[in-house]
Every structure is written in C-alpha cells, then in structure tokens.
Amino acid sequence: MIKRILSVALVFLAGCSDAPNLNSEQAIAALQQLNARLSGEKGDASQPWPYTPEYLKQRHDVYNAIARSQLTPEQAQTLDYLITEERFVRRYQPWPLAAKIDASSTFFQDPQWQEGLAKWLRFVEQALEQGQQSKIYLNAVEIAHIQAQLGQIKTHSTAQMLNSAITSLETYLSRYMPRNQLGLGQLPNGAQWYQAKINYYSNQVRSPIQWYTHILDEQKGLKGLDAQPLPDQEGAQFMPDLDWRQGYGDLRGWAKTQQLTPSQRYMALIWMEVDLGVHAQMWSEQFAYTALANKGIDAGGATRILMQVLTHPGQSFIYADVVNAP
Fold it and tell me: Which of 22, 158, 171, 278 could cross-link to 183 by cystine, CB 3.0-4.6 Å?
C-alpha cells in the first residue's frame, strides 16, 4: 500500500504544485528511493542521478511535501537541517565522501544503467569545473575517494560511452588542484555550513570556539585515562529519520541513550575536538595525527577518527551531552 501511495505522490511532486502531503513513513520511502545511488544501491532508472538539477528539484519538492504535523520533533529538526543545507555548496561537490556509488558487477548487466552512469560522470566533471570557477574546491581526500571508486567502476565497465566518461574524469582529476586544507571552513560559507551541522547534531547553539574551550576543559578532568572505543552502532535499533547519511536513523536520539564509561567519554571528547579542529580551526592532516598521538591514539585509530570527521562533519556532536556528564 505504501508503495502505491508513494508512486502517486511522486507523480504529483514531479509535475504539480498541489503535491500531496507525505507522512514520515512516505517521506522516508521517497527519500530512500531518490537517494538510493548515494547509499550504494542501483536505484530506479526513472530517478535522477545525485545532485543533478533534476535531483535537486525533486529533493526540494519532497522536503516541501512533508507534513510537519506528522513528524516527531526529532524528524522535524532533521527536516529543518536538511532544508538549511540546500543553501550551501554541495551541488558543486556531487560525489561526497559519504556516498558509495556501488560498482556491483550485476549493475553493469543493465545497458541503461551504464548509460545513466556515463552521463552522471560527465555531470560530475562539469560540476567540479563550475565549482572551481566559483572558488569551490574538493580536498585531497575527496579526490582520492572519487578516484578509488572510479577504479572499481572501470573494472566492470563494458560500454564505450561509459569507458570514455571514466577516462575523461580520470584525466580531469589527475590535473585537479585540491584545496590546501581539509575542513569545511575553507569553503565559501563553509563556516556557516559547519555551524548549522554542529547546532543540529548537538541540539545546542554554541560557536566552535565556545565548544572547543568547553571540550578542552572537560578533558582535563579525564586526564590520565586511556580513550576506549565508543558504543558500536552495528545492529543498534534507531528511530526512523530522514537523512541518508545516517541510514535514515536517529543517531542523536540513540547516542543520548548510551551510558558511556569515563574512558568512552574521553574518546567522545577527542572526536569532537578533532571535528572542531579540522573544520573550524583548519587543522592540517599532519597536525590532526600529531594531536591524536599526543592523546595516546595510535595511527590506525587516528585514521578512523579523521575519516569519520571528514566524511560526517559535525556528527561527533551526537555525544554533546557527555561534555556535561558528571
């Protein structure tokens, strides 16, 4: 029943200003369908590829069609956050670190999918070029991420059109000069984007410097402890939410239910410190590794923390409440 209702809703969204209101279940289903390729799925052939103008319009229409009265307070906060993000520069960075454009060999048995992928790779190249003209650049980690996924795609490609698009994007990226810092703060309006993220994840409004000072103060009380891994999210039960990057689950609500040991609390504070350092204070990769080593984090653990911070800016603040824990 939900699929039939959703199909009718999407038809209206595509071509009618009098779109039906979507309840939370329908909204999540619509966003799952729209964002399928970002989550590593093949996706429906009728759906636009990520961050194309068609995708952006359809996503905007879905957001506008969601009935706020039928959302939980947490879902309503997520919707506000997603709408706020529409103002920022993601359209010039159409292949984010959190995206997994899957290269499953079964996908390549579909000529239409290969054609769609080829057109999207051309779009990615054009979007990156337009971004450079607006002084919007990827960082080195984002470039490496795209190159790695391109390499996987290349091993399965059988269509000349797709092979040509892969070669063109590979050549473009080989000449691409990434921005010299990793954090969001170096992007146009990046500081405001990052502020919106930490406001959302923490459910508090504090500036990065206020957070940073507070976090360092809290760490003093835990000095001498060894940082221990945070609770494993694998297999955890989440309340449904609207963001594909969080697996359509309420990470914030889940984190609030976790009972952290002092050593886990120390790890959460370290994660938040690095998050702020990279995105608000323009830490370099080497500086981040040095800072983590000074806190007893080995190279493997430091890499995991840094990649989490780069892939999901601000997400460390799901543990914001722990900085006030007794």
Answer: 278
